[in-house]
Amino acid sequence: MIQLGEGERLDDLMRSGRVIIQSQSEFCFSMDSVLIAHFPKFKKNARVIDLGTGTGVIPLLIADEVKEICAVELNPRAAELARRNVELNNLTEKIFVVEGDYRKHREIFKAESFDAAIANPPYTPITNGEANKISGIARARHEFTATLEDVVTAARFVLKFHGAFYMIHLASRLCEIIDALHRHQMEMKRLRIIQPKAGRDANLIMLEAIVGANVGNLKILPPLIVHNDDGSYTDEIYKIYNE
Q1: How far is CA 238 from CA 50, 188, 217, 226, 235, in A?
Q2: What confidence tier does 130 reach under pLDDT thresholds 50, 70, 90?
Q3: Which residue, of 14, 76, 121, 208, has the fewest CB within 10 Å?
């Protein structure tokens, strides 16, 4: 019998019979995590690192596709939940939770030791005077603990030459993202924009960047539309969740 603590809930991931415990007082995973988990093209024997795993949703979703996953999480409470979720789903031989700060990657990991890295990092920069106005769960979406530069730097350090980095982020920061990747010897090779509805501006992007790749030959995929005009999910979103 699954034991839930105060304020905890059990959600069905609709993937290989897996479930996830989440705390309603912490940041719960969103559609962003589900979308980026379905975007990569992993090799079957890949060693993957999830930079900022939260309660471990991305590793649980990709576990069938790879050899091994290192799930890194700074927040002790989230890391504890991630460990419980790994045990609950009988994946302790495949998913390893590391409680730590990936900004200290040189202290925690061996350089160029992973085939792929994946991240759903904090999206929003913190402007002067804004920090004291943001509290609670909202802080998880702002760059309090890790910036765009931090996550790209960590990804490059842990990735092997020709390793792949997968990330979901704000479409409005695409120029910054390309610049950061380029400065860290990674070039974007696949890009997909995400639109809330057809005809609306893109609000998110998903990307694949390769370490040591040549500039150019970027494949821009058709947009992913989340909602129909009536507000219901599109067929592609339903397909992603049902996979």
Answers
A1: 24, 27, 30, 9, 5
A2: low
A3: 76
